[in-house]
């Protein structure tokens, strides 16, 4: 999207935030100036990045990543053009997607660049199918909500459109 808009229990670890801080427990949430302090963490994906091929391209991985089906709460979803956008404040709405453990600051930076300034990182609780939960990070809408419309996103439909050539250079990948 950058081209468009130039198993630890949750009770024991604080959730990451988008500000460069270290929590009281020493959990580093932004390691740009100290990459040696980076701690792997799960990211939750709900749109195009929930496709392993797309995520591999964005992260510049050699192999397709092993994604885990997951759910988060506390968010609603609308669309920005064809792109899904999470909104805060919908406590009873589950958002289904996948989780992947990011292993370096470089990978996290690639995600931030892909998502552009239209989205911001936000801490969340990721629940896996087996019921286990981990603190994680997702991307939520960071722009004027009037740019969004009520519609749903279907990854299978999006992938079919990409395969059919409707968006070959859409993301600049």
Provide a descriptive summary of the structure in words.
There is one protein chain. This protein has helices spanning 52-59, 105-115, 155-163; strands at residues 41-45, 68-80, 83-102, 119-128, 133-141. It has 3 helices and 5 strands. Helix content is 16%, strand content 33%. It is globular and about 40 Å long. The protein has a domain at 41-158: Hypothetical upf0131 protein ytfp (Roll), CATH 3.10.490. With 173 residues, it is α+β, with helices and mostly antiparallel strands. Pfam families: GGACT.
Total helical segments = 3
User: What structural class results from the helix and strand content?
Assistant: alpha+beta
Query: How would you describe the shape?
Result: globular
Question: What's the CATH topology label of the domain at 41-158?
Answer: Hypothetical upf0131 protein ytfp
Radius of gyration: 16 Å
What is the CATH first-level class name of the domain at 41-158? Alpha Beta
Percentage of residues in helical conformation = 10-25%
Q: Which stretches are poorly predicted, pLDDT < 50 over at least 5 residues?
A: 1-28, 167-173
Order of helices and strands: EHEEHEEH
Helices, strands, pairings?
Layout: E1 41-45, H1 52-59, E2 68-80, E3 83-102, H2 105-115, E4 119-128, E5 133-141, H3 155-163
Parallel strand pairs: 1-5
Antiparallel strand pairs: 1-3, 2-3, 2-4, 4-5
How would you concisely characterize the structure shown here?
InterPro entries: AIG2-like (IPR045038), AIG2-like_dom (IPR009288), GGCT-like (IPR013024), GGCT-like_sf (IPR036568). The protein is an alpha+beta fold and 173 residues long. Helices cover 16% and strands 33% of the residues.
